[in-house]
């Protein structure tokens, strides 16, 4: 009974995220009334409802997937590193994904290859950081990971800058710049489902680790005293978070602040325990992604990149949460 009660806030936040998705589809252009939406999801909708769902559904799924992935990864990083400023790009994953996508766009690749290159680049950067940290055999594994992540991110950023310099300024450079600013507009249903699979796998691993993440946050000595293989568990959790981040960046480009902001907002509701914080953060991140995506279309026919909006909205929101948490403590 106590476990069910502790999980209730995360369940409520998840239901709010699903309710937000229904509200988005039920309003705006090509609005689908909730009864017709349910029928369309079950495969018995009207032609208008099916058409509207086919046009708006992929973008909605991309926003939910990206927001939940970045927030879940951010919560995992913050727990593992005991650092409230830890974010999904801590291991250089976002920079590596950006470099992979930019290289693909430079060579004129299609959307699928661009996403695949971004996914591979993100995993490569995260793998480089994890591999270098393992070679150091440092007593403080978290410090080694952070330093190696900074190095991996710097190398990827340098490569990205080189790509921007050599890109053709009238065709390739605008495409690279627009992708790096982030957008859910271009996502198709197959691409969103392709990204959803690694996000689900990564989230399942983090949730399976559960209380082990709480123990790891206390330090390796505490984990080893309880019989837990601290190093292997930490690498597993970091790999899962890197997998989620790579999938999100490959799907929507570089969208910042969600992975930093959402865990702080969820922490005010559910507390510090990983088993509740990670799913609650994913729900808050999905809601935030839905909100900024809807805001992107609210200023006229020209959409504002969601990466810009996430920074413009996320920075003051994070400051507000920081002040509120400080006063509460």
Polypeptide structure, described:
- The protein has 14 helices and no strands.
- It is globular and about 60 Å long.
- It has helices at 2-26, 34-41, 47-81, 93-106, 111-136, 141-166, 172-181, 189-209, 211-216, 220-225, 230-252, 258-270, 274-296, 306-328.
- Helix 4 runs parallel beside helix 11 (230-252) and helix 8 packs antiparallel against helix 13.
- With 329 residues, it is an all-alpha fold.
- The longest helix has 35 residues, at 47-81.
- 79% of the residues lie in helices and 0% in strands.
- It has a single domain (2-328), classed as ABC transporter involved in vitamin B12 uptake, BtuC (Orthogonal Bundle).
- It starts with a helix and ends with a helix.
The CATH superfamily appears as ABC transporter involved in vitamin B12 uptake, BtuC
CATH T-level topology: ABC transporter involved in vitamin B12 uptake, BtuC
Global Rg: 20 Å
Put simply, the count of helices is: 14
Task: Tell me the layout of helices and strands.
Layout: H1 2-26, H2 34-41, H3 47-81, H4 93-106, H5 111-136, H6 141-166, H7 172-181, H8 189-209, H9 211-216, H10 220-225, H11 230-252, H12 258-270, H13 274-296, H14 306-328
Helix pairs in contact: 1-3, 1-13, 3-8, 3-11, 3-12, 3-13, 4-5, 4-6, 4-7, 4-11, 5-6, 5-11, 8-11, 8-13, 12-13, 12-14, 13-14
Name a few traits of the molecule.
globular; mainly alpha; 79% helix; 14 helices; 329 residues; ABC transporter involved in vitamin B12 uptake, BtuC
